[in-house]
Amino acid sequence: MKRLFAKLNGLTALKWFIYLFFFVFLLVPLFSILLVSFTGQPVNIFGSFTSQKIFASTMKKLSNLSVEAYTSIFSEGNSYFAALINSLKLGTGVAVLVTVIVLPIAYAFARTKMPFKPFFAALCTIPLIMPTFISSHAFILMFGKTGWVTQLYHSFGGEGVIFDVQSMLGIVLVQVFFFFPYALWPMVAAFKICDVTLEEASQNLGAKSWYTFLRVTLPLAVPGIVSSMLLIFTVSFSDFGTPIILAPKELNLIVVESYREIAGFFNWAGSAVLTVIMLLVAAFFFWLQRLVIKGREYGTISGKPTKQKLNDHKGTITGLTIYTFLIMLVPTLALGSIFLSSIATTWGHHALPDGYTLSHYKTIFSTSGKNIWNSMVLAAGTLVLSVVISTFVSYFVVRRGSGGLDFVSSIPLIVPGIALGIALIQTFNTAPIHLTGTALLLIIAYTIRRMPYMIRSTMSSMMAIRKDIEEAAVSLGASSLIAAITVIGPLMLPGIAAGAILVFVTVIKETSISILLAPTEWAPMSLAVFQNLLRGEYYTACAMAILIIVIVIILQALAKKLTKDQLY
Q: Coil, strand or helix: which one is 344?
C-alpha cells in the first residue's frame, strides 16, 4: 500500500486525468456510435451506470444486436453504398490528380533555381487559410452561371458554362486546387533528401537529364510521393465543406449523407453506420500511409557531405515557373473573387461588380458581432485546454515513454470531423452527462479534433530539451510536477506558442464540428458564414469570410515568426 501511495504523485494523477479525458470524450463516444450501428437505436452508456432503468433499456437494446444495417448497404439501390462508392471515387481521383499536378512544382522548389520561390511559397498559403466551403462559393462566383469567368467566356463567343461547378467535377477541382499544399511540402522534402551523387553518377554514365529524373530521382522520392497521395485521399474523403455546398441532390457522398441522416431525419442507425464506415476507411488509409513510410527503406543519406546541385537549365526553369504560376493563380483568383463579392453592391450581370461598398462589413460588425465574439471565446477556451493537455501528453510520451498516450492522442487524426460530431451528440444527448447544445461540448470537440497538431509542435520542443535540466531541479528538492511546470514549461514556450496559434487558426476555420454541435447562442463565424450562404446572403457571407481569412493570415504570420519556419 505504501508503494502504491508513493507512486500517486502529482504527475501520475495528471497522467490518469488525461487518460480519463480521452476515455470519456473520445473512446466512449466512438464505441457508443459503434454500438448504435448494431442496435439501430441510441445507447446511453454513461446513463447505464447511474440508472437501473436505463441499464435495463440498454441491455434490451444490446440483446437485439444485428448486422442488418451493414448487410443492407450492399443491397440493390441502397443510397449508402452509392455514397461510399462515390466518396471513394472522389478521394482516389483527387489524390491522383493532386499528385500529378504537384510533382513538377515540388521538383521545381527542391531541385531547380526557379525564381520567385518565396513568392510562390506565400501563394501556397492561400488554400490553407480558406475554409473549403468558402473556396466552393468562390468557384461559384467564378464558374457559375453568372460567374465572372463565365461572363468572360460569353464575351469571347462561348455559350452556357465552361463546366457545371455544382457537380462531381466541381468538387474535384475545388479539392485539387485547395488541397495541393498538403502534398506539396512533403514532396519537396522527399526530393530534397535524395542523394545527388546517384544522379551525378547516372549523368556521368551518359544518361540524359530526363532519363535520370525518371529512373533515379523519382524512384528515390517514391515514399514521400505515395505518402502524400494517401494523405490527400484521407483529406478529400473526410472533407465536408466542399460537397455540402457543391454536391447536387442526386450525388450521394458519405459525409453529406451522414450529416443529413442526423441533422435532417434524426436517423441514428443510418448516421451511425455511415460514421463507422468513414472511420474504417480513414483509419485504413492512415495506416497505409504509415506503412508506406516505415515499411520501405529508401535511405540514401550518409555521413559523406554532398552539395546539392540545382538544375539551372533555362528552358526547364521557364516552363516550371509558368506552370507553377498558373496553378497558384486559381486559388489566388478565388480569394480575389470572395473579396470583390464582399465589397460589391451587386454582382452577376458583368465580369466586375456593378458598384462597390463597405456596407457589408458594417453589417457583420453590427449584426454578427456576437458571432465574432463567440469565435474568439471558443477558440480561447480550446486553446487553454489544448495547451494544458498537449504539453503534458508530450512530456509523458517523450520523458516517460508513454506509448499508450501517444496512441490515444493520435486517434483524432483518423476521425473525420462529421464523424466525431455525430459520436459526441449520441453520447452526450441525455443525462447524466447532458452536454449536447452547450459551448463546453463544442470546446471539447474542437480540442480533440485539433489537439494532434498541438502535440506534434510541443513534442518537437520537448525532444530538444536536455533531461539533466529537469533532473537538476528534482535534485534540488522540487517535485517532478513542479520541475515540469517551472523548468520544462518555460523552455517549451516557443513550441507551445506556435502550436497554440495553429490550434486557434484551425478552430476559427472549423466547419463540420460547428455545424453539428454549435447552439444558436454560441454560433461562431464559420457557422454564420455557412448559414448566410444557405440563406442567399452572399455578400455578407463573403465579408465575414474575408474577416476570418485576415485573422488566420495574421496568426499564421505570427506562428511562422515564432518557429522561424523555412519552407523553401
A: strand
For 464, other C-beta atoms within 10 Å of its C-beta total 11
| pLDDT at site 200 | 59
Nearest to 356 by CA among 342, 340, 343, 347: 343
Contact 418, 278 (CB under 8 A): yes
- Cell digits for 301? 543519406
Q: What is the pTM of this model?
A: 0.86
Contact between 49 and 43 (Cβ < 8 Å): no
Angstrom distance (rounded) from CA 382 to CA 20? 18
Three-class SS state of 492: coil
Q: CB of 21 within 8 A of CB of 254?
A: no
Secondary structure (3-state) at 112:
strand
8 falls in which pLDDT band (50, 70, 90)? low
pLDDT digits (tens, 9 = 90+) for 465-493: 666 666 666 676 666 667 666 767 676 77
User: Which residue type is seen at 297?
Assistant: E
Cell of 5: 501511495
Specify whether the CB–CB gap between 391 and 492 falls below 8 A: yes
Q: Which residue has the higher pLDDT, 489 or 238?
A: 238
Query: Would you list the DSSP string of 223-266?
Result: HHHHHHHHHHHHHHHH--HHHHHH--TT---HHHHHHHHHHTS-
pLDDT at 264: 74
Residue 157 phi, psi dihedral angles, 5° rounding: 100, 0
